[in-house]
Amino acid sequence: MRDDTFRLRRRQLIAFLRNLPPDLEESLARTRARAVAQSRRRDLLWYSLLGAMSTLGSSRGHAGLFGDADNRRSVEYGRLRSLTASARHRVLESTLRRAKVRMPAQKARWLSADFDIIEENGGPAKMLRRARRLNGSEEKMRFMRQFYGIGPKYSRDIWMDIADPDFDDRIALDVRVQTISRALGLRYESYEEHERFYQNLAQQVGRTVWQLDRLFYGHKDRVLEAMGVARAANRPGPRHRGCGAKTGRLPGRR
Question: What is the pTM assigned to this prediction?
Answer without folding.
Answer: 0.86
